[in-house]
Amino acid sequence: MIVGNDVVDLTDARVPGKASDERFLERIFTEEERVAIGAAHDPDLELWQSWAAKETAYKAVSKLRGSPPTFAHHTFVVSWSQPNERNDATKLRAGSVQFESTIIGVEATWDRQTVYVVGWVGDITPEARDDRLNSRLARLDEPGATWSAPRTELEARLTPRELEAVHSGASLAVRIGARAAIAEALAIDGHRVEIVCAPGKPGRRPPAVWLDGEPAPVDVSLSHDGDWIAWAFALQRAHT
Ligand SMILES: CC(C)(COP(=O)(O)OP(=O)(O)OC[C@H]1O[C@@H](n2cnc3c(N)ncnc32)[C@H](O)[C@@H]1OP(=O)(O)O)[C@@H](O)C(=O)NCCC(=O)NCCS
Fold first, then answer.
1. Quick one: 136-235 is in which CATH superfamily?
2. Which tens digits make up the pLDDT trace of 156-171?
3. Beta bridge partners of 84
4. Which of 156, 164, 174, 230 would bridge 137 by S-S if both were Cys, CB 3.0 to 4.6 A apart?
5. Is the pLDDT of residue 120 over 70?
């Protein structure tokens, strides 16, 4: 199973009102998506959910193909089910994104501060997916979190080939958090896990998980925006 994820910080000044930016809408969304945005109770929320779904799908497709395709947002076509509510204040919505012949399943959660989408590609039952797919959305400044330490201290925890892809505090923090979560899921020491990127432009490099210096049967996706970091990973075999 290949995964993607994307967080949007809704408190960013560039977020509100984007649903009335016609040029942006035309560039990013299909006609059907634009109709759905226009008809939505909260057009900006609908827009950012679909945006995050496209970015999630793009990240998954990049890894599926072995190298990132050119990202034309309107070629990633989003279909949502109706919103449905959980018992708490967080909402949940399922859907899919189609890119050429590939279908990426997606699930969005949101509140007043964030929209968060997780996606997956792979012929898998919902039960097996729940078993293998882990994701977490967290504040960059979460008190007591493993990534909430001075930058030099965090940098010392990564290997040179991991650090080489780091280009910001959030880029560093998300790797610390994801690496610790993967190690915990595998019930192994965190030092054995690395998140390594192939050469490329900063911020445009799909991450891969290594275990004891070799590619591992775990797929990972990272995201960071404003005050938030997020990761998703899938164990290629159920881990018991
Ligand atoms: C993938 C992409 C959409 C993510 O950008 P973003 O939403 O601003 O950033 P996010 O924080 O959500 O995600 C960044 C993380 O995604 C991962 N990532 C980057 N590119 C990726 C890709 N192609 N596939 C999978 N994961 C990718 C990295 O882990 C990155 O973390 P890092 O910046 O700490 O290394 C961005 O890299 C992009 O726009 N690429 C396409 C460029 C392109 O083709 N342009 C053509 C039109 S001009």
1. 4'-phosphopantetheinyl transferase domain (3.90.470.20)
2. 999 999 999 999 999 9
3. 92
4. 230
5. yes
pLDDT at 89 over 90: no
Nearest CA to ligand 1 atom 32: 203
Where are the chain's structural domains? Answer: 2-123, 136-235
CATH number of 2-123: 3.90.470.20
Residue nearest to atom 43 of ligand 1 (CA): 71
Q: What is the pTM of this model?
A: 0.95
Atom of ligand 1 nearest to the CA of 7: 12
Q: Which atom number of ligand 1 is nearest to the Cα of residue 195?
A: 29
Res 238: pLDDT: 52
Longest dimension (CA), the chain: 51
Nearest CA, atom 3, ligand 1: 55
139-to-88, 136, 227 alpha-carbon distances in Å: 19, 10, 6
How does residue 240 score in pLDDT terms, banded at 50, 70 and 90? very low
Handedness of CA 153, 159, 164, 165 (dihedral sign): negative
Sheet holding 228-235, edge to edge: 133-139, 228-235, 218-225
Q: What is the pLDDT of residue 91?
A: 84
